């Protein structure tokens, strides 16, 4: 980027020096005044423009780099460049949040119930012949593991997660697909901790999966959404009840 380009950066207010720098550079990127691959002015020029110290500027730049929207290269030929928007930072943050175990089960459940219904609805509208074939093959695997009983419980849950991720892929919505993938790649620890392994629950789960896939196969978005929401809701209730029992036992 030419140093003559007017980015309209302003001297920052003394009360919000650090955050002001972050906000101005971030806004320039989000508003398209800076594009992927563009170079920010050199540090000395930025310090003079913002009227801040070297330490303040570098702290702000580190935050922007952690956000994943700029890249800082040191040495000859280095500089501060704008990165292409991506999901790596979001994926890392959500993964850490879910796997840390700090999120209440109720919040994970509410989020899942909200997106799984929409995913199933979109999948029912957009599923191709090949998509339906893939879903039917996954259901066949689920049936086979169900017939093996509790010895195949973990394999059965693997197929359950694959079906959910496949539905998200079929939805043709990248945000839903990424969210579903992150959730199902990391939520297993909650299943293992709070779900009881029983034949009846395998049977119920299998029927839920069949209902969802049948609705998608027949391009019935409202039914697909309802089946998906009910399926997730039952899981949420079971895990919530077991979580509450565990919490009560700590005080007994």
Structure characterization notes:
By secondary structure, the chain is mainly α. It has 2 domains: 14-82, Winged helix-like DNA-binding domain superfamily/Winged helix DNA-binding domain (Arc Repressor Mutant, subunit A, Orthogonal Bundle), CATH 1.10.10; 88-249, GntR ligand-binding domain-like (Four Helix Bundle (Hemerythrin (Met), subunit A)), CATH 1.20.120.530. It is built from 11 helices and 2 strands, in the order H-H-H-E-E-H-H-H-H-H-H-H-H. The chain has helices at residues 17-30, 43-50, 54-67, 88-99, 105-126, 129-148, 153-170, 174-186, 188-194, 199-217, 221-249; strands at 70-73, 79-82. It has a two-stranded antiparallel sheet. Helix 5 runs parallel beside helix 10 (199-217).
Shape designation: elongated
Q: What's the architecture of the largest domain in CATH terms? A: Up-down Bundle
Strand order of the largest sheet: 1-2
Distance between the termini: 66 Å
Number of domains: 2
Would you list the SSEs in sequence order as H and E? Answer: HHHEEHHHHHHHH
Query: Can you give the helix content as a percent range?
Result: 55-70%
The CATH class of the largest domain turns out to be: Mainly Alpha
Rg over CA atoms, rounded to whole Å, is: 24 Å
Outline the low-pLDDT stretches.
245-252
Structural class from helices and strands?
mainly alpha
Under CATH, the topology of the largest domain is which? Four Helix Bundle (Hemerythrin (Met), subunit A)
């Amino acid at each position: 980027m030419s140093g003559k380009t007017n980015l309209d950066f302003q001297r920052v207010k003394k009360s919000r020096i650090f955050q002001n720098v972050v906000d101005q550079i971030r806004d320039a990127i989000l508003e398209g005044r800076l594009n992927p691959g563009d170079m920010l002015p050199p540090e000395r020029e930025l310090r003079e423009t913002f009227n801040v110290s070297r330490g303040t500027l570098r702290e702000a730049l580190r935050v922007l780099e952690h956000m994943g929207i700029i890249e800082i290269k040191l040495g000859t030929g280095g500089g501060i460049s704008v990165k292409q928007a991506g999901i790596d930072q979001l994926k890392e943050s959500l993964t850490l949040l879910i796997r840390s175990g700090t999120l209440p089960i109720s919040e994970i459940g509410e989020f899942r119930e909200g997106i799984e219904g929409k995913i199933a609805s979109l999948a029912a509208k957009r599923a191709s012949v090949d998509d339906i074939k893939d879903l039917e093959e996954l259901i066949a695997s689920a049936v086979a593991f169900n017939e093996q009983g509790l010895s195949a419980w973990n394999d059965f849950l693997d197929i359950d997660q694959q079906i959910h991720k496949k539905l998200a892929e079929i939805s043709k919505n990248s945000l839903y697909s990424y969210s579903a993938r992150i959730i199902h790649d990391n939520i297993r620890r909650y299943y293992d901790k709070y779900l009881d392994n029983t034949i009846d629950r395998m049977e119920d789960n299998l029927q839920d999966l069949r209902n969802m896939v049948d609705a998608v196969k027949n391009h019935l978005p409202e039914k697909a959404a309802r089946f998906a929401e009910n399926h997730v809701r039952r899981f949420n209730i079971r895990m919530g009840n077991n979580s509450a029992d565990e919490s009560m036992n700590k005080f007994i």
